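(Protein data)
===
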Amino acid sequence: MKFGLLLILLLTACAKSQDPRDYFERGEYSKAYALWLTEANSGDSEAMNYLGIHHYLGLGMPRDYRKAITWFEKGARAGFADAQYNLGSMYENGEFVDIDYMQAYMWLYAAHKNGNPHAANRMWGITGDHKIFGNQVAMAEDMAEEFIDRSKQTSTTVKSESAP
């Protein structure tokens, strides 16, 4: 009995996780990136966001804002709130894109509606600093709502098509 328990503990301790979050948290960015890439290419929107983070911050590779925005946009269009937040922030700050407060607000609003806890503060910063005005806010919110509705319809269609 003791030998069996010891064997289980040893096997558990020796097993390597294939969760890219574990490698990312330990700073093993190359391993994390390879795993995220596989998941992103399979349609995982969280993985797309993490690839954007790798490129944006230059984790395990040189910084590349072009690739960062590409991955953030893929994740954002797939409906991942953190990717929407990151993309909106890039539009707000003009990081490898022209500053576009309408696009920034639209993506931040979508992020907020999808549960990102930081998006509301950035939205307030855009409106509070009068970077866009009431009619533009309404237009950006309408654009985001249409996008969110289309995303949900696409997600539902994909799920129902893949169901047995």
Remarks:
- The radius of gyration is 20 Å.
- The chain has one domain: 21-152.
- Residues 127 and 133 are 7 Å apart (CA to CA).
